[in-house]
């Protein structure tokens, strides 16, 4: 199903689970990724009416990879537009990684519409969180060879964040398509190294390149613009959410979004129920999948009790 929004963007959304259940919005990560229907099945589909939506330029939303009007505030407004379109009065929100940022931003702006939050792999979008992942003094210290390979491929200018180099090349119309594809692969290989996944292989079929390039364009667009948020990310005004039930699933071995982020969140929102897992960041890990399933069932039970 599709929902036209502003600046020519058309959002793709789909529903899963129990049509009569508590509505739950699924906010995917990235930025630049899309929804995975298999992940919806982890969110207690017997109890929740799960709505997955691909963000602007992502997944099956169109135009693919479009950056015009693609900002954090616009994504938050899109979430509210979808709620109104579906005639939903109140809903819970699930967000994973970058999706946690959007879930928290939406809840701050529309607190009267949110029943509760389930967050997985908390990303607060602070400047320090991004620098940890992208600059030499952060997680690169633990993966020096993978980081050097990234630098060798992207060739950033002196003192330049490599993501800025990727962004420049992707938006340069003179960059050959194959070269742009190899740059996008290099960044994905860096992410894979940090997450303990195999590096993506070069695909000689050029008809498959655009999907990865679209993701990389949206991803780097948000990163170079510091996610269109203040350096403190989502932390301002978090205390306005102290009335909400909030569950957090986070891997204690997560090197993409450090566990220290959870402490910053729980300091602001002490009512948060934390599910710490012996895992990293990726939803490919069974321990994370099991924890999300448990947390979703727990949140559903909490919402049922509060509605009685």
TrEMBL record:
The active site is at residues 97, 254, 281. InterPro entries: AB_hydrolase_1, AB_hydrolase_fold, Peptidase_S33, Pro_iminopeptidase. Keywords: Aminopeptidase, Cytoplasm, Hydrolase, Protease. Pfam families: Abhydrolase_1 (PF00561). Transmembrane segments: none annotated. GO terms for biological process: proteolysis. It comes from the Bacteria. Its EC number is 3.4.11.5. The keyword Cytoplasm applies. Belongs to the peptidase S33 family. This is Proline iminopeptidase. It comes from Thiothrix fructosivorans.
């Amino acid at each position: 199903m599709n929902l036209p929004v502003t600046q020519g963007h058309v959002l793709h959304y789909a529903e899963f689970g129990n049509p009569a259940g508590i509505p739950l919005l699924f906010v995917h990560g990235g930025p630049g990724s899309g929804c995975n229907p298999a992940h919806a099945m982890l969110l207690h589909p017997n109890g929740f009416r799960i709505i997955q939506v691909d963000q602007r330029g992502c997944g099956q939303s169109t135009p693919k990879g479009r950056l015009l009007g693609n900002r954090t505030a616009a994504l938050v407004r899109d979430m509210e537009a979808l709620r109104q379109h579906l005639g939903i009065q109140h809903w819970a929100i699930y967000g994973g990684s970058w999706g946690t940022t959007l879930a928290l931003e939406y809840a701050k702006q529309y607190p009267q519409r949110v029943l509760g939050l389930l967050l997985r792999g908390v990303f607060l979008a602070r400047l320090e969180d991004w620098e940890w992942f992208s600059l030499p003094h952060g997680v690169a210290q633990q993966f020096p060879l993978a980081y050097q390979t990234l630098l060798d491929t992207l060739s950033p200018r002196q003192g330049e964040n490599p993501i800025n180099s990727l962004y420049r090349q992707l938006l340069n119309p003179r960059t050959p398509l194959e070269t742009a594809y190899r740059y996008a692969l290099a960044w994905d290989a860096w992410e894979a190294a940090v997450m303990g996944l195999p590096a993506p292989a070069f695909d000689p079929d050029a008809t498959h390149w655009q999907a990865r390039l679209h993701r990389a364009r949206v991803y780097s667009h948000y990163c170079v613009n510091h996610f269109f948020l203040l350096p403190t990310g989502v932390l301002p005004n978090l205390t306005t959410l102290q009335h909400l039930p909030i569950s957090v699933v986070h891997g204690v071995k997560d090197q993409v979004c450090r566990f220290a982020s959870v402490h910053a969140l729980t300091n602001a929102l002490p009512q948060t129920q934390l599910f710490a897992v012996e895992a990293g960041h990726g939803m490919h890990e069974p321990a994370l999948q099991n924890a999300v399933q448990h947390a979703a069932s727990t949140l559903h039970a909490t919402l049922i009790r509060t509605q009685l």
